[in-house]
Amino acid sequence: MIKIGKLIDSITSYLKIRFDILKIDLIEKISSSISSVISGFILFFILLFVLAFASLTAGSILNFYFDSKFLGYAIITGIYVVVFFIMYYTAKSGRLKKMIEKELLKEKEKSK
Length: 112
What we know:
Elements: H1 2-66, H2 71-93, H3 95-111
């Protein structure tokens, strides 16, 4: 009888330790994911500002080249509209989703 009680205590202790390890692993994965998302957002906003200022610069250069106050900005806006429609139709056709999934799978395999 004493051995059965000791066995039950050992199993209970093992399960508690195992559960604690699983909790720690889960917390580690969640914190890693959250930090990746936050750093991704920060990089995205920095890129957004760089793109905005680069667009203004390109528009100003085109305005100077065409001796116009607005034509350069209109050309840059037109380029963005074309890129938007290309991205929109790519996303609508499902190709964009496939490309993103493919890249995510590559990243997942690299991290293993």
